[in-house]
TrEMBL record:
The active site is at residues 24, 258. Residues 21-264 form the SGNH hydrolase-type esterase domain. This is SGNH hydrolase-type esterase domain-containing protein. Disulfide bonds join 39-63, 119-135, 187-237. GO terms for biological process: lipid metabolic process. SUPFAM superfamilies: SGNH hydrolase. It comes from Lawsonella clevelandensis. Pfam families: Lipase_GDSL_2 (PF13472). One of its GO terms (molecular function) is hydrolase activity, acting on ester bonds. It comes from the Bacteria. Keywords: Disulfide bond.
Amino acid sequence: APFTLLNYGGIPLKGPNFVNIGDSYTTTTFYGTTLVEPCFRNAVGFAPAVAAQVKLPPRDAACPGAGIEHYWHTMKSFQFPVPKMPQRLAINKDTQLVVVSLGGNDAYTESMVSLALKCVASWTSPVERLSSNPCERRVGTRLFSRAKAMERALTYVLKDAKKRASKDAVVIAMGYFNPFPSAAGYCWERALAPVGDLKFVHNLFVTLNESVRQAAKNAGVLYYNPSAEEAFARSSCGLPLYRLISITGLPEFGVPFHPTLTGHWNMSKHVASLYEQEMQARRHGRSIARQTWQVGPGSKDAIML
């Protein structure tokens, strides 16, 4: 039973189901409703909220620290050395909806903590601080190259998810909230880090989301980019409790650099909407997939439907 709970986020029921494939962005949020288990899933977070709206029992295979390789291979859970089966095994021929949100952890060549320490060191160095982007100068080149290179690997994941699921399943490739908006120079966070590095983080997530979008297009599945609707007021620079992502995790009592509970609910609402739109389009012999791959004028962020 403990392994079943770890692998599926609950007891997997027979019949039609929804599968969540991902990392900490879809599992960890408000500590008050976090479940006491190795993957820190949230009782009212993204996966449960999607399941309630589309009326499909959830199989939540996501876990913090997961990368693309963990879709294919056994991994150890984030907090305890407990083996967790490949996420793809949660998908079966009864699966009607699959959401795949992977790639964020694959951009790093080392742990996020290690990268954060390097950035903080660069910001406190009198010499490096003279530059507007000391952190980018230290780690930017390899992060951008990895974010750009993951398109092919994500394409294979999405094609496999389509193959494993029901023949009429809806598969959605989901990107990431951007920690900083394009107008990062107006953020309160500029007191913590140089504006150039705030823009560096923004551009890195734009690049990551573009790889997810291209992979969705290659695989012929729907694409959803939470950042496309992330106006300044709802970004980490915005109002607490109203914003969709927080850098400090306070006062929302959540995980730093992760979506807030409001962000989880917002993502779930749009995923459920895309699912319903796609099902309605299919009843008329069409699909909205091609529309989801479009980008707005002068922007790399996909438009919202």
